[in-house]
Amino acid sequence: MVSVIVPIYNEEKALTKNSPYLEKLKGYAELIFVDGGSADRSIEIAASYGKVLLSEKGRAAQMNYGAGFAQGNILFFLHADSIISVDTLRCIESKLRDNSFIGGCLTQRIDREGLQYRLIESFGNIRARLTRVFYGDQGIFVRKDIFLKIGGFPEVPIMEDIIFTKKLRKAGKTIVLRDKILVSPRRWEKNGIIKTTLLFNLIIILFRMKVPLHKITHFCEDIR
After folding, report:
1. Are 104 and 165 in contact (CB under 8 A)?
2. Which of 45, 157, 191, 193 is deepest in the core (most CB within 10 A)?
3. Based on the domain organization, do 98 and 163 belong to the same domain?
4. Burial of 21 from C-beta contacts in 10 A (0-12 / 13-18 / 19+)
5. Same domain, 161 and 214
6. Are 195 and 104 part of one and the same domain?
7. Cβ–Cβ < 8 Å for 174, 95
């Protein structure tokens, strides 16, 4: 069984918009929403589709907390504004069933028309396939036993997905499935494609230069 873990914080709009998809998922997988102190109706809406847990705010902390309550042998970490299908969960189960793969991510598709969005997602998907380093909005999945073995997500303010998947690729074979994860364009629309892309690349450069993560978060706040 797959346990889908969704960290939320004031995600009323996204949860409402994605309610038809959540309704389908809840009939197939265990849905666990981990709230970090929302002031809107996020908890009320999420409770209609799965278990709601309360945690300290922080994506890594919330995902780890949810994983601790998961009953499934496969964990799938889903952003509240992203969409996947039941068929995709079935594909993940099939790929991980024989222990050939220990985890992976999906192929990202940004939910907006335009060449600029096709270029952004194509670059990200190619990078993921070449490096086996995955970002959170690409839909990271992993066998629960492996997740626990490597210590879950590091509870840092940023880059928890990169640090985690670097450890994951050392633990065994990972895969980028062709199945799509539909991602909201809201972060690009909020500040513009050029500014958001430049900021994100700056964050990656600072991370590789080993700049303290708490300092990098100042830039991250502008693109989330």
Report:
1. no
2. 45
3. yes
4. middle
5. no
6. no
7. no
**Is the same domain home to 118 and 174?**
yes
Residue type at 94 in one-letter notation = S
Could you tell me if 219 and 136 lie in one domain? no
Pair 68, 140 in one domain: yes
Residues of the domain holding 203: 185-224
Report the relative pairing of strands 140-143 and 103-110 from DSSP bridges: antiparallel
CA–CA distance, 18 with 74 (Å, rounded to integer): 22
Q: What is the pLDDT along the chain (224 residues), one digit of tens a residue?
A: 999 999 999 999 999 999 999 999 999 999 999 999 999 999 999 999 999 999 999 999 999 999 999 999 999 999 999 999 999 999 999 999 877 899 999 999 999 999 999 999 999 999 999 999 999 999 999 999 999 999 999 999 999 999 999 999 999 999 999 999 999 999 888 888 888 888 888 888 888 888 888 887 876 653 33
User: How many angstroms from the chain centroid is the CA of residue 26?
Assistant: 18
